[in-house]
Amino acid sequence: MTATAAELLEVLWGRASTAPASVSQMRVLFILEHHERINLRTLASLLASTPPSTSRLCDRLQAAGLIERDVSRTDRREVRLRLSSRGRALLADLRVRREKTLQDVLDQMSPADRLSLMHGLEAFCAVATAQIHDDADETGSQTA
Length: 144
Description:
Blueprint: H1 2-16, H2 23-34, E1 38-39, H3 40-47, H4 51-63, E2 67-71, E3 79-83, H5 85-106, H6 111-143
Antiparallel strand pairs: 1-3, 2-3
Helix pairs in contact: 1-5, 3-4, 3-6
């Protein structure tokens, strides 16, 4: 059931998306939203990618005006990444479109089913968020 639900969400979100970015690029934007000013090596680790591939991915996002790079104040060789205002606006717009798409589905569910889904999703979000933050903390401590 979880695989089916995930696939259906992908289809619904695909319908809602007008993003000028690939799935990999969107992952970078979501990561940067939650880990502002991380360095390229940490981002590569979170993506399970190599620094050169991650750098090229960021080149494209920077060219599109979705992210910005800053040289670290403490180490001029280190580059810090962050979302640009355009990147933040893109994520906000995407969330509005996704929410509208999901709301159309939820409106067709019974109130009891919506309540059950909400409780299950709250528990899922709590555990997933903790896991993601734990993974990021581990990655950050390994590269520090």
